[in-house]
Amino acid sequence: MASLMEDLLEVLGKEEVEYHKLVAFAEEKKDAIIKGDVKTLGEVNVKEQEAASELLNLSNRRTQVLTDMATVLGKDPQKLTITKMIGYLEKQPEEQKKLIEQRERLLEVGGQMQALNQQNEALLKQALEMVEFDLTLLRSMRQAPETANYDRNAYNTGDILGSSGFDAKQ
Fold first, then answer.
1. Mean pLDDT throughout 131-149?
2. Which residues have a Cβ under 8 Å from the Cβ of 142 and sit 6 or more positions away?
3. What is the chain's Cα-based Rg?
4. How many of the other CB atoms lie within 10 Å of CB of 32?
5. Nearest Cα residue to 86 out of 73, 75, 78, 97
6. Predicted pLDDT of residue 50
7. In the chain, where are the structural domains located?
8. Given this model, what pLDDT does residue 16 score?
């Protein structure tokens, strides 16, 4: 059981390191969004994908370690969580303390990730709104105004002025 606990703490530590990498990437992404640097944004996304892939591998490894721990303890592997494992370690306060500290660090970095992701989402929405505004502005500048011509039923005919500067015939 002691080696399984060491394995669990090691995996959780590696997950924390990867989450810290993701926090740093989210900061880079925020700066790239603010500057409008699409190239850097693409590079950061590639780095994020690599870190996310590593996190998936670590998550699978953590699940396997918890399954092994559940088997040793005679518990249901599907229901064993880190929090429940902390409860089972009442007679081993040193390991319990290490696990509590590691869980708290993971929760803290997870909260940072969530806040940065929400901030980046808001920045991206604003950037898209700005692009949409610019496109609408460009379209409206290219479109000629409608004339104030009415048909005999007093409806606007919606005729558009020509794009040339003069309507005079020569």
1. 75
2. none
3. 30
4. 20
5. 97
6. 95
7. 2-142
8. 95
